[in-house]
Amino acid sequence: MNDIDAWVWWLVAAVALGIPLVVTAMPEFGMLAVGAVAAAVASGVGAGTVAQVLVFVAVSVALIAVVRPIAARHRAQRPQLATGIDALKGRQAVVTERVDGAGGRIKLAGEVWSARALDTARAYEVGQQVDVVDIEGATAIVI
Asked: How far is 103 from 116, CA to CA, in rounded Å?
């Protein structure tokens, strides 16, 4: 055991920290593994045991302090690309069959949709442009 250099032990620690990273998908283990690799480099250039431990702690804490809040911010953001019915809200459509509070038809994104007016007292005639404000089931709500 005494014949193995300290940098090898640090690399073993990095691999050992990488295993729970893969199993649990907790990025903190990856940051600790990078700290262990940095300590292995410090050991390889001749740093003492105390310096190696300080490098490990400093790199690990710095990564956790910097990378973790950035990752949390990105995780909390909504996707930039709207898909499904969210992508249709706010788009313009053309009335193909008179639309009022009871119903009608529009051409939206190349497809014919059933539609009804948000304001039940309002009616839209064929060829008129309308804006889709919501989708309820297979019916577009327009203004």
From this structure: 4
What distance in Å separates the CA atoms of residue 28 and residue 69, rounded to the nearest whole number? Answer: 12
**pLDDT exceeds cutoff 60 at 1:** no
Which of 20, 29, 39 shows the shortest CA–CA distance to 63? 29
Q: What is the chain's alpha carbon radius of gyration, rounded to the nearest angstrom?
A: 30
- Residue 29 tokens read as 């283990």
- pTM > 0.70: yes or no: no
- Return d(Cα 92, Cα 106) in angstroms, integer: 10
CA dist 61 and 27 (Å) reads 13
What span, in angstroms and rounded, lies between the C-alpha atoms of 20 and 26?
Answer: 8
The one-letter code for the residue type at 2 is N
Amino acid at 124: Y
Q: pLDDT by residue (tens digit) across 102-134?
A: 999 999 989 999 999 999 999 999 999 999 999
Q: Are 58 and 79 in contact (CB under 8 A)?
A: no
Task: State the pairing for strand pair 105-108/129-136.
Answer: unpaired
Q: Rounded to an integer, what is the distance from CA 17 to the centroid of its chain?
A: 25
